[in-house]
Design brief:
Elements: E1 2-4, E2 9-11, H1 18-24, E3 34-43, E4 47-51, E5 54-64, E6 72-78, H2 80-89, E7 95-107, E8 110-122
Parallel strand pairs: 6-8
Antiparallel strand pairs: 1-2, 3-5, 3-7, 4-5, 5-6, 7-8
């Protein structure tokens, strides 16, 4: 079951109608703000190339969020200016907040998923007013 927060409607999605549902839904109404905080553990070499539209650069980096499980993320940064800015302001060991999109592509019957970072900022310390209070009376049941 998927609930759309803006339209306040609930959609029931089964395996049988998932593809049809994905084609019909208007994704601009869904709230999807994917962020993660962690430490940059490795910055890979820059990949470059040329196309008919011009030159391109791509960089991937590893982020460790410190969790016990599922703690490593490999993000891609694509574009001449974005890669240059990333290298200018970031280095291994730096604590950052990353906003990203999940991208999936099909090629010859196989699917490839990537995490495309579109904003990387130095992590700011949370103050007591920024943290969510622990409320036991806020349980869903």
């Amino acid at each position: 079951m998927l609930q759309d927060g803006l339209m306040n409607q609930t959609f029931v999605v089964s395996a049988k109608n998932t593809q049809n549902f994905i084609q019909k839904i208007n994704f601009k109404y869904l709230k999807m703000d994917l962020k993660v905080r962690g430490k940059i553990t490795k910055i890979n070499n820059v990949q470059t190339g040329k196309t008919a539209k011009g030159e391109w650069k791509k960089l991937s980096f590893l982020l460790d969020n410190g969790a016990k499980y599922n703690n490593l993320f490999c993000f891609d940064v694509f574009g001449l200016e974005k890669v240059d800015d990333f290298l200018k302001y970031n280095k291994e060991g730096k604590e950052v907040d990353v906003s990203f999109n999940v991208n999936c592509r099909e090629y010859e019957g196989r699917y490839y998923t990537s995490l495309d970072a579109w904003k990387v900022f130095t992590a700011k310390e949370l103050t007591s007013s920024d943290q969510q209070p622990d409320r036991e009376d806020d349980m869903p049941f």
